[in-house]
């Protein structure tokens, strides 16, 4: 009986602990729900657009508005008239990432009337070095809602409309057209199909487009489709080959660079909204962060033969932009499939090769900067670029390593060389190069790609291996 009583007391204590934990979780949920209530006119996850009501004109500014915006009211080029125009302007921000966060932050602080915040993605730890509206407690939360919640705390007078959805040819024009007042579109995306999609929607709807990009330590910005200026297609009538395009997930970016370019986007939007002439209507701003230098390139005017804004446009409706560009409308690392299945092995199969001590060579074809982040100890590093150029020192190193490994076995057939990179894209290209070199520059080898690369190794084999 005494034992039973002790068990009952113990169970009651455990129950009390669980009740306290439930109470804490309920409080946290209530805070998150309250945090997310930024606009009753939002978008649902299925992507059904709710028509927005017109913004009311402001015949005069309130005392609170005068106090809040006093410093910019004192700027002669802006003044009270500029503030009134800004208060009845709507801006749709496509992408709440490295560009969209600082852009939206400064527009909200300046008192724009309405901010549409569109992003299909959720907050990840790898976003936080540049996407400054989000925080550690927002991991897994939709970026659009997270950005709106942060901005609401900055300026509750602005109407925030978060769109947690993918921009598509089916919904883009409806989104761009739905603002009844003068509105401006900001392209803060990080992929080519979305750039063409946003551009074409803006041209068809007659809206100005302020576009920026950032990669590594470089940035660009221009204003499209405004006062006779060119559109994106005027400059780039044909999309670049998909394999030549690099985004932040592939190539990296120093966080402050998109921050700077996002601020420039906000500046151009504020000038347009307040009736001023934007600085980059027919010019391209290029920023070199390494040298801390800016330079401006004059762009050609709107092209009469442009397929969307020209005199006889062939593009009269939005199309399949992923098919047009040959790539996905996402800023995630793309997955290529260049080899047959027999030319690839899984990370599990490679783990067995290691465990069985099968003689082979593991070739890591990532750039040295990525190898410094993490690598498998048994690998040798020869970057893909060196293989493509067939540089003599690297080719000689590869020959020596293959011969050194070959001497550990009596195998007379093709010697196995396994190639790895971050995700299994560059490694496939390297396998194709090695296959061409086999029996020519190199002795006969059997090159295979490790599917999914080091990130698959980290997720499926060694959970302690760094992911980046």
From TrEMBL:
Record EC number: 2.7.7.80, 2.8.1.11
Textual note on the cofactor: Binds 1 zinc ion per subunit.
Pathway: Cofactor biosynthesis; molybdopterin biosynthesis; tRNA modification; 5-methoxycarbonylmethyl-2-thiouridine-tRNA biosynthesis
Catalytic activity: [molybdopterin-synthase sulfur-carrier protein]-C-terminal Gly-Gly-AMP + S-sulfanyl-L-cysteinyl-[cysteine desulfurase] + AH2 = [molybdopterin-synthase sulfur-carrier protein]-C-terminal-Gly-aminoethanethioate + L-cysteinyl-[cysteine desulfurase] + A + AMP + 2 H(+); [molybdopterin-synthase sulfur-carrier protein]-C-terminal Gly-Gly + ATP + H(+) = [molybdopterin-synthase sulfur-carrier protein]-C-terminal Gly-Gly-AMP + diphosphate
Sequence positions that bind ATP: 98, 119, 126-130, 143, 190-191
Alphabetic keyword roster: ATP-binding, Coiled coil, Cytoplasm, Disulfide bond, Metal-binding, Molybdenum cofactor biosynthesis, Multifunctional enzyme, Nucleotide-binding, Transferase, tRNA processing, Zinc
Named cofactor requirement(s): Zn(2+)
UniProt record, GO biological process: Mo-molybdopterin cofactor biosynthetic process; protein urmylation; tRNA wobble position uridine thiolation
PROSITE patterns named in the record: RHODANESE_3
Cellular compartment(s): Cytoplasm, Cytosol
Binding site for Zn(2+): 231, 234, 306, 309
Annotated S-S bridges: 325-333
Molecular function GO labels: ATP binding; metal ion binding; molybdopterin-synthase adenylyltransferase activity; molybdopterin-synthase sulfurtransferase activity; nucleotidyltransferase activity; thiosulfate-cyanide sulfurtransferase activity; URM1 activating enzyme activity
All residue ranges annotated as the Rhodanese domain in the record: 356-466
Keyword Transcription: no
Pfam family, one: ThiF
List of catalytic residues: 248, 421
Task performed by this protein: Plays a central role in 2-thiolation of mcm(5)S(2)U at tRNA wobble positions of cytosolic tRNA(Lys), tRNA(Glu) and tRNA(Gln). Also essential during biosynthesis of the molybdenum cofactor. Acts by mediating the C-terminal thiocarboxylation of sulfur carriers URM1 and MOCS2A. Its N-terminus first activates URM1 and MOCS2A as acyl-adenylates (-COAMP), then the persulfide sulfur on the catalytic cysteine is transferred to URM1 and MOCS2A to form thiocarboxylation (-COSH) of their C-terminus.
Family according to the record: In the N-terminal section; belongs to the HesA/MoeB/ThiF family. UBA4 subfamily.
Name of the protein in its database record: Adenylyltransferase and sulfurtransferase MOCS3
């Amino acid at each position: 009986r005494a034992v039973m009583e002790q068990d009952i007391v113990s169970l009651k204590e455990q129950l009390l602990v669980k009740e306290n934990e439930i109470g804490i979780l309920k409080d946290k949920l209530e805070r998150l729900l309250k945090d997310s209530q930024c606009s009753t006119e939002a978008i649902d996850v299925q992507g059904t657009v709710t028509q927005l009501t017109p913004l009311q004109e402001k015949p005069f500014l309130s005392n609170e508005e005068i106090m809040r915006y006093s410093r910019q009211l004192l700027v002669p080029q802006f003044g009270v008239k500029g503030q009134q125009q800004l208060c009845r302007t709507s801006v749709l921000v496509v992408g709440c990432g490295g560009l969209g966060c600082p852009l939206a932050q400064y527009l909200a602080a300046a008192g724009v009337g309405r901010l549409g915040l569109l992003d299909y993605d959720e907050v990840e730890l790898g976003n936080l070095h540049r996407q400054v509206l989000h925080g550690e407690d927002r991991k897994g939360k939709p970026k659009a809602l997270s950005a709106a919640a942060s901005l609401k705390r900055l300026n509750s007078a602005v109407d925030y409309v978060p769109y947690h959805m993918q921009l598509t040819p089916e919904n883009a024009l409806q989104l761009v057209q739905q603002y009844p007042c003068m509105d401006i579109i900001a392209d803060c995306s990080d992929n080519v199909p979305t750039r063409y999609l946003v551009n074409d929607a803006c041209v068809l709807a007659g809206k100005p487009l302020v576009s920026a990009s950032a990669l590594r330590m470089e940035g660009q910005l221009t204003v499209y489709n405004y006062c006779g200026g060119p559109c994106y297609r005027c400059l780039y009538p044909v999309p670049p080959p998909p394999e030549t395009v690099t985004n932040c997930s592939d190539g990296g970016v120093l966080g402050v660079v998109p921050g700077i370019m996002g601020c420039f986007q906000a500046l151009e939007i504020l000038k347009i909204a307040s009736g001023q002439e934007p600085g980059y209507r027919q010019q391209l701003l290029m920023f070199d962060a390494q040298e801390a230098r800016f330079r401006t390139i004059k762009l050609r005017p709107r092209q009469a033969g442009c397929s969307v804004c020209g005199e006889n446009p062939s593009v009269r409706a939005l199309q399949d932009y992923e098919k047009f560009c040959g790539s996905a409308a996402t800023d995630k690392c793309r997955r290529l499939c260049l080899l047959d299945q027999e030319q690839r092995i899984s990370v599990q199969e490679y783990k067995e090769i290691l465990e069985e001590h099968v003689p082979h060579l593991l070739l890591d074809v990532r750039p040295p900067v990525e190898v410094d982040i993490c690598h498998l100890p048994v690998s040798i590093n020869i970057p893909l670029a060196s293989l493509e150029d067939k540089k003599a020192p690297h080719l000689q190193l590869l020959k020596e390593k293959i011969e050194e490994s070959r001497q550990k076995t009596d195998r007379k057939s093709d010697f196995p060389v396994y190639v790895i990179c971050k995700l299994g894209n560059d490694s496939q290209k390297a396998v194709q190069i090695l296959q061409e070199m086999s029996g020519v520059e190199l002795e006969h080898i059997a090159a295979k790609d490790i599917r999914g690369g080091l990130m698959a190794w980290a997720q499926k084999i060694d959970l302690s291996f760094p992911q980046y």
